[in-house]
Design goal:
3 domains, alpha/beta, globular, binds zinc ion, Aminopeptidase, six-stranded mixed beta sheet, 7 helices, five-stranded mixed beta sheet, Immunoglobulin-like
Length: about 350
């Protein structure tokens, strides 16, 4: 499940909230932290909270021990930051608390004295706003304030252009502190997404001329922007993000395929056209697998951050509903995971041959 608020929001508008409990509608409208990233340089640490909308915030510092409190007013956090593991020269620990008035309180415990500030970065191009909490080690000079050069991932450019493998990057959704959806029986989205992604990678890597990479190989938190960066660093020919759905109506079932929405554009960009093609080959592969079923028979479009890979054809597959008791049981089954993996692999390969990659 990813950014389900789009669906909830649309439903709340279309039915006037009548069919949804007030709390759900409210949750859908409330500002939410969607991603947390660390940017660490020797003298400065930035913690970047991606948000779905602008928020109000306050910052105050306290000593003994040195700590900084950032309050984000009326803001939700889907993951538990208290479990976030990191190693940083300035920040020792982060803990969060939801206050009774809905404020998200984040306390940063510092290893040493540091100046702090928090500011909202508003994206003028219509992207999502970010709240940046910045710590600068006291006594550090201004040169340390330069933006760190973007870390380049391992390049695979050394491959011979004529013999280049078709590179497929698989993105198991969620991970680490972010479990994603959790079924009534305790099955976590992050675990099934990883299990299926590993199976797809195995199938793909067993095919000559193809190479698969994962955005995470184990149970760890990876930010959405980082996932796109990983895909680009591998020079991916296509990118498939794997998720499991959840909905408040327990009978909802089946798989769905999402592409990035380009609302407001008169015609799709070439990259988006290729994403739609990839979405269609995946939809057909799922529809043609007897043990699998589709929730939506056609591609859905949404503004998922993980699909903003620019030039790389990218789709997000919701494999089944964890909120559906039967599908939760299926998602845990090895045979069902194998069917899903086969369908995803087939869809990816069909896309490769249709577009002349293979
Ligand atoms: Zn998800």
């Amino acid at each position: 499940m990813l950014e389900r608020r789009f669906v909830l929001k649309a439903m709340a508008l279309s039915v006037g909230g009548l069919l949804l409990p007030a709390s759900l509608v409210h949750a859908a409208m409330k500002p939410r932290i969607t991603d947390v990233r660390f940017l660490t340089t020797p003298n400065r640490t930035r913690i970047i909270f991606s948000l779905n909308q602008e928020i109000k915030h306050t910052l105050s510092s306290m000593s003994n021990p040195d700590r900084v409190v950032v309050d984000m007013l009326d803001t939700d956090l889907s993951s538990d930051l208290n479990l976030l593991t990191f190693s940083d020269p300035i920040v020792r620990k982060i803990r969060t608390d939801e206050l009774s008035n809905g404020t998200m309180r984040t306390v940063f415990e510092l290893k040493d004295e540091a100046t702090s500030r928090a500011f909202l970065l508003k994206d003028k191009s219509g992207g999502k706003p970010r709240l940046v909490v910045e710590f600068t080690a006291t006594g550090s000079n201004d040169s340390a304030r330069d933006e760190p050069a973007a870390k380049k991932g391992k390049s695979v450019a050394s491959r011979d252009a004529n013999k280049r493998d078709i590179v497929i990057v698989l993105d198991p959704g969620h991970g680490g502190i972010d479990p994603g959806a959790i079924g009534a029986g305790g099955v976590k989205e992050k675990d099934v997404a990883l299990a299926v992604a590993k199976r797809v990678a195995k199938e793909i890597n067993a095919t000559p001329g193809y190479k698969a990479f994962l955005t995470r190989n184990d149970d760890r938190f990876v930010g959405l922007t980082r996932r796109c960066t990983i895909a680009r660093s591998h020079q991916a020919d296509l990118f498939i993000s794997l998720h499991a759905d959840a909905f408040h109506i327990p009978s909802a079932r089946g798989a769905s395929v999402y592409c990035l929405s380009e609302r407001g554009r008169p015609t799709p960009t070439p990259a988006n056209r290729r994403s739609l093609m990839l979405g269609n080959t995946l939809l057909s592969a799922i529809a043609n697998t007897p043990s699998l079923s589709l929730h939506f028979k056609s591609i859905k479009q949404a503004r998922f951050a993980v699909l903003k890979t620019n030039e790389i054809p990218s789709v997000l597959v919701e494999m089944a509903f964890l909120s559906n008791r039967q599908e939760e049981l299926l998602l845990r089954k090895s045979s069902h995971q194998a069917s899903l993996a086969k369908a995803v692999t087939l869809g990816a390969k069909n896309f490769a041959s249709q577009t002349g990659l293979a």
